[in-house]
Amino acid sequence: MLAGMIRLSTIIAAAAGGAAAALAAGVRQPGPPLPGDRLVKAPVLTRTMRARMPAAPPAVWPWLAQMGAGRAGWYAIDLIDNGGEPSARSIDPALQRVAPGDHLEASTFGGPPFVVTHVDEPRDLVMVLRARAGWLRTSYGYHLRPDGPDGTELIARLRMTGRPRLLALALAPLLLAGHEVGQRVQFLRLRRRVSGR
Asked: Cα separation of 122 and 102, whole Å?
């Protein structure tokens, strides 16, 4: 328990540093074009994060395909993302179908869902979230690229804009700080599940 708390505090500290660095860079981090980038034009925030998974893309994909609150969870902060229910620790064959138009709940607490816009198994899964009244639009993409014979580079890209633009700019640092923590925890937990730990 203590080791887990220390690990989480280390993740939060690293995330705060990452968020500060991204903000210092103007919260824009374009990187190479990826599927889904066109869903959010003129973003006020773009953040790309990467992690190595210890398996080839076909072995990582099933963990992503079953994501969603009320499904397998998001493997991140379960108290926020999945109503406190722990994210799945195994592959559920009944949750492997994911297709454009599917709704993946962002949280069990309500709010707009992520809508799947692009699926290219086992390479790309892209979603978009639109807040009510259109004041916020966020795209989120997971991209799996081979990294050696038994590895995958998992790329997560967040892009966000909103209306009025000034409000979106004001919200960007808060969204980025939460994203940094959640994404690092998700990468850590996915790596453990993929490796069977």
From this structure: 17
Q: Annotate 99-126 with DSSP letters as a single string.
A: -TT-EE-S-TT-SPPEEEEEEETTTEEE
Helix (H, G, I), strand (E, B) or coil at 171: helix
DSSP string, 23-74: HHTTS----S--TTGGGSSS-SEEEEEEEEESS-HHHHHHHHHT-BTTTTB-
Domain that holds residue 15: 2-194
Strand order of the sheet with strand 103-104?
A: 45-53, 152-162, 136-146, 124-130, 114-120, 103-104
pLDDT along the chain (197 residues), means of 10: 48 44 47 90 92 97 97 94 93 97 91 94 96 82 95 96 84 88 96 91
Residues 6+ apart with CB under 8 A from 6: none
Q: Helix or strand or coil: residue 148? A: coil
User: CB neighbours of 48 closer than 8 A, spacing ≥ 6?
Assistant: 29, 31, 155, 156, 157, 158
Domain count, the chain: 1
CATH number of the domain to which 132 belongs: 3.30.530.20
Residue located via tokens 């069977």:
196
